[in-house]
From TrEMBL:
This is histidine kinase. Residues 160-213 form the HAMP domain. Keywords: ATP-binding, Cell inner membrane, Cell membrane, Kinase, Membrane, Nucleotide-binding, Phosphoprotein, Transferase, Transmembrane, Transmembrane helix, Two-component regulatory system. It comes from Acidithiobacillus sulfurivorans. Its main location: membrane.
């Protein structure tokens, strides 16, 4: 169905501004005539009647006075005025004095005369006046031309303020589609709404980039991690029956390893995004984690002396996701530490910090930097580094941070910082 509504932003803006200016002009026209022209015409009618009555009272109608002329009451000089101001003046003259009349006309020359009769039986008083003009057709077309020019200029300026940043955003969009990170995009600028649109598109591009990386990591990681245990299982299946039965325990280890690997990768993808956030007491939460560390991982938990003095703070978290962080730390302590773990709680302005320290050999400076960046590569005997990425992702989800450092006395310290009042990302 065809519509007359313009499709371009310039056309729509021009149409809206044109309608707005026309409506404004109509309102100004009505208000000007209602509150300026009409009262002025009424006062002018009063002045004419008072002048006519004063001259008649002084007997001036029997002799010409200056440029004034007199005509008998039966005469019909001039014609009924057709201009707005004079027409309203004539209306007020008749309204104020019944039988009074006002006419306007030209004499034999080019002089305009205004004739007024102050009563039905009074003579006509004629006065030469200058032509009264409030603008003809030329002025009207000039005014409309100025309005159209201002409207077009205003529409162009408005559309330019919007279209320029949108055009730049459209030029940057293919880069996002090709996989470029939005962090490298040039500032777009423009109105606040365009900036909000830019931020929304940038956030969407970041999410797409993250999902692409997760998909790649999931596919390559699972195929890499499962290849070794699958190869061992395939080899065992070709052994004789007697040797096959002897390898049952090794097969169970391989199956558990594959199950753990799949679970880690799926946890990395989900990261607790759909879990509902709740507020928990730090002390109660750590008591639950200590029980899990002792029963499930066989760790020796040591609590710092100031632990219970500052552990009454509350944090907002997703419990299952956050428990996954602690389980990964417990598992790494069991594998690479000496089985001992110290817990300390520190309270800082704006955030609560939980420190988990093991007493193992620590890690090298290069690995420490990679761990803090969440990019730890696979090392022999050290898994795929997925657990650290999971921890970082979950802490980012909570608006907090995770930081690794070597303790001065030996061992690895994990710092978990949680904002006190900052809302969780959804």
């Amino acid at each position: 169905m065809r519509t007359f509504w313009p499709r371009s932003t310039l056309g729509r803006t021009l149409l809206l501004l044109g309608l707005l200016l026309l409506g404004t002009q109509a309102a100004v026209y009505v208000l000007f005539h209602q509150y300026v022209m009409n009262p002025a015409a009424e006062r002018f009618a009063e002045f004419l009647l008072q002048t006519d009555h004063a001259l008649i009272s002084s007997g001036a109608q029997y002799a010409p006075t200056g440029n004034l002329q007199w005509r008998p009451a039966s005469a019909k000089p001039g014609k009924i005025p057709d201009k707005y101001f004079m027409d309203k003046t004539a209306h007020y003259v008749q309204q104020q004095v019944p039988g009074a009349r006002l006419r306007v006309g030209l004499d034999e020359g080019s002089t305009t005369w205004m004739w007024i009769r102050g009563g039905p039986h009074q003579p006509w008083l004629g006065m030469p006046v200058s032509p009264m003009s409030f603008g003809g057709q030329g002025f009207m077309f000039m005014r409309l031309g100025v309005i159209a020019l201002v409207t077009l200029l205003g529409a162009w300026l408005i559309v330019r303020q919007i279209n320029r940043p949108l055009a730049r955003l459209a030029a940057e969009a293919p880069r996002i589609g090709l996989g470029d990170t939005p962090d490298n995009l040039q500032p777009i600028g423009g109105p606040l709404e365009v900036q909000h649109l830019t931020q929304a598109i940038t956030g969407m591009a970041n999410d797409l980039h993250r999902l692409h990386e997760e998909r790649t990591l999931l596919l390559t990681g699972i195929s890499h991690e499962l290849r070794t245990p699958l190869s061992r299982l395939l080899l065992i299946l070709h052994l004789p029956d007697s040797d096959f039965l002897e390898q049952k325990s090794a097969m169970r280890v391989d199956v558990n390893e594959m199950d753990e690997t799949i679970d880690k990768f799926l946890t990395l993808v989900r990261s607790g995004d759909q879990e509902k956030a709740v507020v928990v007491n730090v002390r109660n939460w750590l008591e639950e984690m200590q029980e899990i560390a002792r029963e499930r991982y066989g760790l020796d938990i040591r609590v710092a002396e100031n632990h219970f003095a500052v552990a009454e703070n509350s944090i907002r978290c997703r419990p299952l996701a956050l428990e996954r962080v602690f389980r990964i730390i417990f598992d790494n302590t069991r594998r690479y530490g000496d089985g001992s773990l110290q817990i300390r709680v520190l309270s800082h302005p704006g955030h609560t910090e939980i420190q988990l320290r093991d007493y193992g050999p620590g890690v090298s400076a290069a690995h420490l930097l990679a761990m803090n960046q969440g990019t730890l590569p696979r090392q022999t005997g050290h898994g795929a580094g997925i657990g650290i990425r999971i921890c970082k992702r979950i802490m980012d989800l909570h608006g907090g941070t995770i930081y690794f450092e070597n303790a001065a006395e030996g061992g690895l310290v994990v710092r978990l910082q949680f904002p006190v009042t900052a809302p969780l990302r959804t």
